[in-house]
Amino acid sequence: MREPGGHARSRLGLQHWPRSRATFVVILMGLMLCGVAASLWLSTQAIADSYRLERLREQNAQLAEHAEQLRREVGQLQSPSSLAERAKSLGMVPGGNPARLVVGEDGSITVVGEPVKATAPAPPPEKTEDDGDRDDGSAEEEAEESADGNDGETDGDDR
Question: What residues does 23 pair with on adjacent strands?
Fold first, then answer.
């Protein structure tokens, strides 16, 4: 049996497919149902991924803030004043001017400077209540002289 287009339907086995329109409609409805279910599943996954992404962004912001706080803390601890304070609390003293070893081209070693043992500076005198209230008036005189700019010196020019 040949059709007008010259194709033989019997060879392809499509001669009686689908057997009824109801079967065709059921197959199409099943395909549409699978498509809708896949679409719903994909959209649900996309929403879940967006929530996960938002949580990760918040976590990243918190970690960046924590890292910046740690950088500030390290910078503060590395400052010269902080290092000096911690060294003093550990009992360390300033080293002063150390001697140096200079190695010549021929391998000879020369000591430059005099090695001196590091000693702790004398602690500043403790202030008492009496130090601020001098009765002799010398502190007031010093303040007045420094305000005048003379510092107690005269240049011999009396105007």
Answer: none
